[in-house]
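Hi R.,

Here's the chain you asked about this morning:
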Amino acid sequence: MVTFKHTKSELSFQKNCSQKAVALFKASFATNNILRKYPLLLNLHRGIDGALAGIIISGAVLTSLALHSQHLWTLNFSRLHLTRDLIHRIEESTATLEKYFLASASPPNALVPTTSAHLIYVDKPRERQTRFKDFLGTIGREITSLVHPSSNGY
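And the predicted structure, written out as tokens:
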């Protein structure tokens, strides 16, 4: 084991430097003297420090929000993958069932090919007119003529 021996002057120099650093650090937080000498500069520094703290906090909030939304998106995407897999399985099962029923079904023999002679035409039923329907029809025609007036030519 090697031991280091320091001289008395080296130890006093290190002690002096550390005391000066501590004094400088304490002086930087002593605002009474600075407030009296440079009030505008101190308030500017306080404003900048507040803005910097706000930016850091808002950055942290936005980062956590982005990470949370990415996590939710990942969960939903995995659920989507499972849903697509289930839909594919259902479609395969449906196709298999359709093939089975179509193979076992026989064509009906009682159907006749359709021709125009077999068609039956039914007249349109007449509407019963009431006073209220007549009134609404008249108003509807008048409004239509106002909205879309007939024009001659092009």
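Residues 39-104 form the longest helix (66 residues).

Let me know if you need anything else.
M.
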